[in-house]
Design goal:
0% of the residues lie in helices and 53% in strands. It is an all-beta fold. Strands 2, 4, 5, 6, 9, 10 and 11 form a seven-stranded mixed beta sheet that branches. Strands 1-3-8-7 form a four-stranded antiparallel beta sheet, with no helix packed on it. The protein is globular.
Amino acid sequence: EVQLVESGGGSVQAGGSLRLSCQASGFNFADSDMAWYRQAPGNECELVSIMLSDGTTSYGDSVKGRFTTSRDNAKDTVYLHMDSLKSEDTAVYYCAARRGLGLDTWGQGTVVRVSP
């Protein structure tokens, strides 16, 4: 089955760091574009980062300079390394894959809470 499983969320104080992981299975990960989204209570779902299959990246304005995404095709895993965390980064973080042919897959999400 096609599946994405996020991990690495938790609670951290402002200024701290976390690394999220997203393990993919059931499809050709190396040929897929990967993205991270987040949604905080009362907010719209927000694009955090994009990692294309060729390795190019882009980031949402609110996280530029603080977050870095990377991928390990040998492990079918995409990462989101978050530094200098702020309380406004508190959200559920979702991993998503664009598998081609307009087919998208979403993970279940992992909670990040940043305390001031």
